[in-house]
């Protein structure tokens, strides 16, 4: 399997941690905003396989994973994360790129596709992007005080709890235990959750401006955001968009159904790479 390397790049007074590998058509990946989330949380099962065919550039969002923290509030900052997406696209240094975004970053990559002519294709998984509430009973963005609370939060993203192993919990705990991070994360989501969901909304005008093809994946068992409330109405606003609903799958699509995801995404991005 193609090796994945890591490096940090400067960005707006902090740093972005990157995972890179492979050659050819570049695909930039961005993870979601779950507690302690990072690139490997969402994409560890697909980075290597994608890098065997494409050039992969995956970024931890600022405030997450091994990226640096935002120097000043607001820490939940869609405009800043959108600039981060644009910066990573620029690092690809290519005339055409593909984008993959999970959950919060699904909204970010859709917004990027609306304004960046270099985006040749966009894929989302369990995306946000509609000003609608979470499903009833969803735990939301709450800092876990105990390991059991963290385990419950992360298991909520999958139907198969065995996918959440000790290594994944240790990776998330390493993020959460960074000095000052508890306060940082708490202040990031200090307010009504509906306001953060609303801030991620992709407008009708942005959807209409997306001219590249799109695939919106969603697990039928997603306990955070229902496909009927997010992926399906978002796709209706895009000229060339397909929705893929996956059985036996919750929020973390690329982790829970990596083979099916790759079966669809690999030929999709091959077509994007060669489209006129």
From TrEMBL:
Start and end residues of each AB hydrolase-1 domain: 29-263
GO MF entries: hydrolase activity
A Pfam family it matches: Abhydrolase_6
Keywords in alphabetical order: Hydrolase
InterPro entries: AB_hydrolase_1, AB_hydrolase_fold
Top-level taxon: Bacteria
Signal peptide stretch: none
Keyword Magnesium: no
Identification of the protein by name: Alpha/beta hydrolase
Organism: Tistrella arctica
Lineage start: Bacteria, Pseudomonadati, Pseudomonadota, Alphaproteobacteria, Geminicoccales
């Amino acid at each position: 399997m193609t090796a994945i390397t890591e490096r940090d790049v400067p960005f707006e007074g902090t740093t972005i941690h990157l995972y890179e590998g492979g050659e050819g058509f570049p695909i930039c990946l961005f993870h979601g905003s779950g507690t302690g989330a990072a690139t490997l949380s969402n994409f560890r099962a697909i980075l290597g396989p994608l890098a065997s065919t494409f050039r992969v550039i995956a970024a931890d969002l600022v405030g997450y994973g091994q990226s640096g923290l935002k120097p000043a509030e607001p820490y939940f900052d869609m405009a800043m994360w959108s600039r981060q997406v644009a910066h990573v696209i620029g690092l690809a240094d290519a005339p055409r790129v593909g984008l993959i975004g999970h959950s919060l970053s699904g909204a970010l990559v859709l917004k990027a596709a609306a304004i960046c002519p270099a985006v040749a294709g966009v894929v989302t998984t369990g995306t946000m992007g509609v000003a609608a509430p979470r499903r009833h009973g969803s735990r939301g963005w709450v800092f876990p005080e105990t390991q059991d609370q963290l385990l419950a939060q992360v298991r909520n993203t999958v139907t198969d709890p065995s996918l959440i192993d000790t290594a994944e919990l240790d990776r998330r705990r390493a993020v959460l235990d960074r000095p000052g991070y508890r306060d940082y994360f708490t202040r990031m989501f200090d307010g009504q959750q509906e306001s953060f969901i609303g801030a991620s909304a992709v407008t009708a005008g942005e959807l209409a401006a997306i001219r590249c093809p799109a695939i919106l994946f969603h697990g039928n068992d997603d306990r955070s955001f229902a496909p009927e409330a997010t992926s399906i109405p978002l796709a209706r606003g895009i000229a060339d968009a397909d929705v893929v609903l996956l059985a036996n799958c919750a929020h973390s699509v690329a982790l829970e159904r990596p083979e099916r995801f790759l079966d669809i995404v690999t030929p999709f991005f091959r077509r994007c790479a060669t489209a006129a």
